[in-house]
Each structure stands twice: as structure tokens, then as C-alpha cells.
Amino acid sequence: MEDKTMEKKNLDWANIGFSYVTTDYRYVSNYKDGKWDEGTLTEDPNVVINECAGILQYCQECFEGLKAYTTEDGSIVTFRPDLNAERMMDSCARLEMPQFPKERFMDALDKVVKANEAWVPPYGSGATLYIRPYMFASGPVIGVKPSNEYQFRILVTPVGPYFKGGAKPITICVSDFDRAAPHGTGHVKAGLNYAMSLHAHEVAHANGFDENMFLDPATRTYVEETGGANFLFVTKDGELVTPKSDSILPSITRRSLVYVAEHYLGMKVTQRPVKLSELGDFAECGLCGTAAVISPVGKVVDHGKEICFPSGMEKMGPTIQKLYDTLTGIQMGRIEAPEGWIHKIK
Ligand SMILES: *Cc1c(COP(=O)(O)O)cnc(C)c1O
């Protein structure tokens, strides 16, 4: 394999945006006859599968998302990748797919990031190397059943800073569509949860909103999440509240922010069902996930009724800003991290 790791790619890191860029290497491992092969890096970005593959017919697939980036001291690291490995194993179990072992996940991650070192943006650029592990049914099925063959891959692609010129609060609408049924698949990271959310997303955009707030489908009175991020609320006396439900995706960012709030900022944190009708009582609102860490929400619109948070439409609320600064400080190596949170690759 030709060594492409030496020189950094000549990219305008601050302006690359968020779209797929083909990088040099990706990791591939195949599951067949009841076991995973040893796995390898490849330069081929294309996947060739049978026309009747389980992914194409019955959408048997799950994925993860995390980032590699350069810290203040020049190391290349990822943030809590063990939790991505574990969550993917949970997704596989729910979707009747074979689990990719955690140690192998970690090893594959290190290999693919190292091989694409030239694509890891420099410290201070605000850009990161987005990492997408995923698994799909590659073997043919026509009768409805789990496939006998699977492929696990990790692709990486550089992405620009999420917020260019500061984080402006967004406006979201209460959706008329539902995201995930009770006892369904809302808690697993599967493409199927996204396929059905695309229409809701397009409708929200067409109506001038940035995102959807999905409610619990059973009663449509509790807040769940958006298509791809969990909610955070801050009360007027500075308590962090996060919605609790079996059908929201267990965001690693949200779980980390809860820890940061309690152990770094001394805040009270409550994880409980949150009613739509109580939103007007909160002082601040945000969305959290790997991509943005936190996006501030300025306004929620429920069928013409506006719920405006006191933090306003100009900037992040003060508590959410503190949470954001502390977590990103930990990630970038400016603030000491809890044991095991920063995984050094190089
Ligand atoms: C991935 C995802 C999130 C965010 O999870 P992180 O681990 O923080 O990136 C939130 N909601 C949904 C539906 C997701 O798929």
C-alpha cells in the first residue's frame, strides 16, 4: 500500500462544509458462515452486493457517528468511541445482525483513522474527520428473515466547523409526523429511523423551520427528540432537564453533558418525561449530538403557537454556553477529561 499518510491534504478546512468527500482508505470486514473475517483497509469506495441483499430489500442496517480531531497538543483522538462500539452492538442485537466485537471496532477505528491521517484537520480549524461505522445485510434474502451475510465498514470524511460565525439559535416546529413507536426501534441507530424522517424534515424546511420536534406517538403530549439530536432544557433556576423515554436514541453527547453538568458545573440534573405543555417554563433549550455538540434552540412553534425561550434568537443561553464550552474544552484537551473519555490514536 502506497504511503499517503505523510503530507496533510491541501484543503480549505474552515470551508469544507458537511458533505461526503472520498478519502484514501476505508475499513471492511465481511461476515459469512457464522464468523467475521480478519478485516482490511481498502482504497475502493464502492460496495458491490447482490441485487437481493437484505439491506436493499428489508433495510437491515445500522450505523454510528463519531469524530477524530487534533487536540491542542497535536494528538489525534476520538471521543468515547467505546460507547459507539457498545451502542452499535445494541443496535445489531435489536436488528438480528451479528455484533462486531468491541475490541475489533476499536482496532478498526484506529487503523482507518491512522491510514487517513492526512485528512484529519489541524487543531484550531474547527473542522474534524467524521467517522461513519456501519453494518448492513449483504447476503440475499427474499423470504422475510435475517440475512446470513453482513458487511461492516468504516468510512471517514472531513467535515467543516458546524457553526460558521457563531451558533445562531434555531427555530423548530412540533411535527405532525411521529418518529418512533413505543417498543419500536427509536432507541437504535438504524437507517430505517432516518428513511421515515426525511419527509417530515422536508416538510419542516418547506415551512421555514430548521428541525422537527417529535412527540411521543402514544399520547402526543411528551417531547421525544428531533430526527437526529436529543433535547436539553434548562430551568429558570439553572437545572438541566433531559427528556426520558424508551424510544429516544441514547446520545453519547447528551450522556456526556449530563456528567459535565453534575461533576464539572455542580448543576442539578433531572432526566424525566417532559411535557410539551411545560416548554414555556424553561429558560433555555438546545439540541445535542456529535455533529454540533449543542445547537441552541430559540423558538418552538406548535401549530402557530410560538414558545420563545428567554435566551432569545441572537446567541446561546448562558447555561448552554457553559455546557458547550466545558465539553468542547474537554474534547480539545484544554480541560482535563474524565478517565477514559479521550481515546488517543496518534
Ligand atoms: C446519533 C443520534 C443522536 C445523537 O447521538 P450522539 O451519540 O450524541 O451523536 C441523537 N438522536 C438520534 C436519532 C441519533 O441517530
From TrEMBL:
Gene3D superfamilies: 3.30.470.10, D-amino Acid Aminotransferase, subunit A, domain 2 (3.20.10.10). Pathway: Amino-acid biosynthesis; L-leucine biosynthesis; L-leucine from 3-methyl-2-oxobutanoate: step 4/4; Amino-acid biosynthesis; L-isoleucine biosynthesis; L-isoleucine from 2-oxobutanoate: step 4/4; Amino-acid biosynthesis; L-valine biosynthesis; L-valine from pyruvate: step 4/4. GO terms for molecular function: branched-chain-amino-acid transaminase activity. Pfam families: Aminotran_4. Belongs to the class-IV pyridoxal-phosphate-dependent aminotransferase family. NCBIfam families: ilvE_II (TIGR01123), PRK13357.1 (NF009897). This is branched-chain-amino-acid transaminase. It comes from Ventrimonas faecis.
